[in-house]
């Protein structure tokens, strides 16, 4: 059965209303259902300050929606036997051969100090060193220096790993000097792990991350506007956020993508369009195939889109005070690059057990629901409204089934 037209009209009305109310600068939507495009939406402005209308081919900074693409790229190398998920990270990035654990202590004056301790000895059955598997599921003990504050996060900032001025090799070598926030495999912590996956791809392939992605993923899928920077000819299609946050008045600063970056960030550096990304999503929905070409094995993709945390690890990661918080949220686990729904209830949005998704800092979002044969891509540049718009989108799309 096709999606209900009346419900899709309500969806369009709702997002046009968000634009008129000043809560949404603009957005592009693609909905695929049962192998066919069921709906496309175009809302608001590409550049709200200039009043430039949104275009079907507007380009967006997708930030962490880079992660699923880079995770798929690494699994291509796994399928070639170049590495295994159970390999220690140090087997391929030897700078990680002596990781340490960051322990917080208070001195006599009550100040918090960061002390390093060695990780417990490795046992073959329960490795305590970071594994490739840990990088993909964010359990390697890494973190982000830019979300929240702690002595370890401050160390990230001081070391320059958040600066964007290091290439992937230098980034990996610098990151290896920093302590872990938790023993590997004990905590889900959103982190620079997928950036390290990018460095791993470079080390194994002998190519830059951008070149590998272009050859193995973007070119086969026919992605014309997905890259780590925009050529000058496309600068006029780059979507912008509101110049200031509608709620705080603070300036909104997004990633400069006008020139090739020093750091090709596997965790958040790509730009893309709705039409490009929906091709990637359709390939995932079709079990790793695009038209007549097989890009990834069906069973490999099934492995990636299953929960790899389990109830105990999810519970440990949701305790108050966890560094970045458990971003997948209630009802979701995490696979190898995607949040994965593990419960029909708990989450505050509709969906199916087994649906999977991820999103970007500036508001891009996609999900795939294998049960309903649904693939949805949403592109916007509105960091301050992203979670509210995502929840609205999921409710309205599922209301059309």
TrEMBL record:
<feature type="domain" description="Beta-lactamase-related">
    <location>
        <begin position="12"/>
        <end position="384"/>
    </location>
</feature>
<dbReference type="InterPro" id="IPR001466">
    <property type="entry name" value="Beta-lactam-related"/>
</dbReference>
<dbReference type="InterPro" id="IPR012338">
    <property type="entry name" value="Beta-lactam/transpept-like"/>
</dbReference>
<dbReference type="InterPro" id="IPR050789">
    <property type="entry name" value="Diverse_Enzym_Activities"/>
</dbReference>
<protein>
    <submittedName>
        <fullName>Beta-lactamase class C</fullName>
    </submittedName>
</protein>
<dbReference type="Pfam" id="PF00144">
    <property type="entry name" value="Beta-lactamase"/>
</dbReference>
